[in-house]
TrEMBL record:
Name used for this protein in its record: ANKF1 protein
Record domain Fibronectin type-III: where: 202-299
Name of the gene encoding the protein in the UniProt record: Ankfn1_1
Gene Ontology biological process terms from the UniProt entry: establishment of mitotic spindle orientation; regulation of establishment of bipolar cell polarity
Domain of life of the source: Eukaryota
Residue ranges, annotated region (Disordered): 1-25
Native source organism of the sequence: Donacobius atricapilla
PANTHER family assigned to the protein according to its UniProt record, in alphabetical order: ANKYRIN REPEAT AND FIBRONECTIN TYPE-III DOMAIN-CONTAINING PROTEIN 1-LIKE, WIDE AWAKE
Record's GO cellular component terms: spindle
UniProt cross-references to InterPro entries, sorted A to Z: ANKFN1, Ankyrin_rpt-contain_sf, FN3_dom, FN3_sf, Ig-like_fold
Amino acid sequence: KMTQQMRDLQLAQARKPPGPSSPNAAKRLYRNLSGKFRVNYTSFDEGSLVGRGEKEKLRKSYLFQSNAALFEAVELQDLDRVQEMLKHYSPEELDLNTPNSEGLLPLDIAIMTNNAPIARALLQAGAKESPHFVSLESRSLHLSTLVREAEQRVNELMAQVVNEAPNADCSEKEKQLKAWEWRFRLYKRMKAGFEHARVPDAPSSVLLSVASSSSLQVTFWEPLSVNSAVVTKYKVEWSCSPTFSPLLGEAVIDKLKDLHFTIQGLVSGTAYHIRVSAYNMKGWGPPQASTPPFAIPSNWREYDGRAPRRRGQAEALDHLLGQVKTVHQHCICHEPCKNQPQSRKHSVSKSLKHLFHPGSKFLKTLKRGLYLTVIFYKDDNILVTHEDQIPVVEIDDTYSCLLMQDFLWLTKVSCMWDEILWLRQCVTVSQSSCSCILQTRFKMLLAISQMQGLLGIQDLGQVFFEPIKDKQGNILIVTLKEVKTNQTFESVRWVPICKLQTSRKSVSSPEEPTALDTLLISVQDKLAYHQRSSHALSAGLYLGYLKLCSAVDQIRVLVPEQLPNILCHVKIRSNPNISREEWEWLQKMASVEEPVPTEPEADRSQNPLFRELQVAIKELMTLVNIPLQEAKDFRLYSQEVLDFGDQVSFLLLLPPSDDVCTAPGQNNPYTPRSGFLTLPLQIFELGEER
């Protein structure tokens, strides 16, 4: 008979009927569900349902079948099926942590049958152990009860099968007997797995690093032993004493997707000792001390007490712009504009709705001059007029040579599209000087206003890093903007880029394409650049390579094509923080003018940052195609760590001072491999800010 504990447990779980009781039943469930794993239950045709009640009934039935199938898949040790169900169902939909009528969870079955792959898959999905097993004794008693009752049921059915004459009832009893024999063997295997298990070994490795001036990051790895039961949680403990007495705090980690933990709220300048222990169904194993054995929360800025470079910069610039506006608001040039209504910020749907009426001033063809074009795109589609034209407006029909300084000025203007009207009014006051530069820039502002008015939208996107030129004297400045809305618009349409490219009738020869033809041919490359330039780096500390080259009118910087808003780089580690001790070591190395570390040295082998830098420098030199021996003359920039927010930081690797910037005509023997480009320094700075 059941113990009182098991009776109470069964009453509590009466709402949850047991799953199929045999391998054959499980296989039938698999066949029934095989076509449904790839769709959610909400994908059924709702029109065929009588109402919400029937829909909810179907949902519950469907999810119950999935839950029962999960139990059977775990019992049958079917890893592929378990992974498939975890992929297509949420833990809530599977009732992953609700015990069945036997008081067991899927994770209990996996760990007691010592099926490590299934147990790890369940743990990654958020599975827990049964809360009913409050002690080793309660788990042992529970398993003994399941084995005894299964054995008793097998004996009863066997006696009935032997004593009854062959008939339909006897055949059904034989099926039940086989099912209970299978379950009896399962419970015996679970009981044996529990009895032979032992507490886990200590974690194989525990690494400690300084995450900030008030936190430490602990990263650990599971025990190496393969004989003990599966580890289901870890405990991190910290103390100011190497004996861990008194203990300052502890944290239990049962979400095992990532084996790391950040200890917050620590005191800067205080040494903390850390240890980690593992837990399985037999209890807690011995702790593993961290490497290094202690760490002190700190940040490199504490070395000389400097404040963050960008602190208050945005506020200061806004204040400065406000002051400039205040000075200019009473200028004569603003008087004619006082009665002009403020231009409305149309929504994208309104603005694009009235694009390109017959009276619009968009151009179909280019005549010798300077032009502005915008590319709005969504996925693989591009927005065009009813005449299948990319929007183009004229800046200056007498301007045949775009000065780089004018172009770079326009890229800065793109950071304040909302202020174009005000900028026009400010530039107007200087028109009497007849400055060619001011006249050109005023025409640029007029063209921008015209484009904004025709599109009904102020934000024209990001300026592409170089204009398109042709041999006919046309210069095309391109801006790019991704439209993420899903509205449909009247009078305009989204056209696949490939269709626009094939349907356009070129008026130029392949040898001398016009600027518009060149734009269409290379539009995918420009969209790829625009998307890549907005990508962000994952959290970590990086080693960047600063390489410049100069021309007559600009300085350009080497960047990777895949991430053009960041210098050439490799990742040093996932922790972005440089501690005070690490920065002191870097300062010491710089003060004695030591070369960058490319070869191991015995007296530095214990410095983790030294080893990390060795690996990163070798990887970076290979990336930019520079022989490693040349790196001996390189230097690390020791004035500061470049922080980009709280999660990304950079150390800079600099060539010798004579080689940081290659002058025009200067020979550069080491040319980077494919996958790099050079951007004007001002464009790179703007992309970095974005």
